[in-house]
Amino acid sequence: MKHLSLSFLLIILICSCGNATKNDSNVGSAQETNAENTESSANASGKKAQKGDEDIIARVKAIYEDVFNEYNEALESESIPQSSPDEKYCSADWNKVLDKVTEFDAVNNPDGIGFFDADYWVMGQDFHEVSISDVQVTERSKDNNKAKVEFKLHNAGSTSVVRLDMVYEKDNWFIDNFTDVDNDLDWKADMLDYLKENNVK
After folding, report:
1. Per residue of the chain (201 residues), what is the pLDDT tens digit?
2. What is the 3-state secondary structure (H, E, C) of the chain?
3. What is the pTM of this model?
């Protein structure tokens, strides 16, 4: 199979994040049924996602299954994923920071890479048969509204360790940050540093 190029990934990021304002909570929290995992809304159903470790793990697995299904389908058809995983699955604060970076780069680096030289969903420039395994909660806040989750990410035959900062908002768990543990790459911290360096408020 052919890999999507970095330019396609950048288009995905710009298209999916440029119009993001608030998170869409139209996602499920159960692990077993794909339809419930990725399409039903906790708010719409009137049910709040639970805060146990197993619930957080199920949520992370459901998020990545949905995102990677679309990435793999796009790879097969050599197209671009049409949905915005960040709007659907990331926190309000993550999307706020991401919007500032993409808006800055759209104006100041229209023909260049700008901040993004890789895709944090796959921790690379290209992707091929992506999946995750060994998902575990490694840390919880005292109020049970924040958690850290680690897992192994498999992409194009290589494996890396990823850590997510999860926050509980809008009655469900959302990703607030991505960290590539192997390369000590904290995406949110680096985005904030990038904005500071460029005097973006």
Report:
1. 333 334 344 434 444 444 433 344 333 333 333 333 333 344 445 689 999 999 999 999 999 999 999 888 877 776 666 568 999 999 999 999 999 999 999 999 888 778 998 899 999 988 888 999 999 999 999 999 999 999 999 998 999 999 999 999 999 999 999 999 999 999 999 999 999 999 998
2. CCCCCHHHHHHHHHHHHCCCCCCCCCCCCCCCCHHHHHCCCHHHHCCCCCCCHHHHHHHHHHHHHHHHHHHHHHHHHCCCCCCCHHHHHECHHHHHHHHHHHHHHHHHCCCCCCCCCCECCCCECCCCCCEEEEEEEEEECCCCCEEEEEEEEEECCEEEEEEEEEEEECCEEEEEEEEECCCCEEHHHHHHHHHHHCCCC
3. 0.78
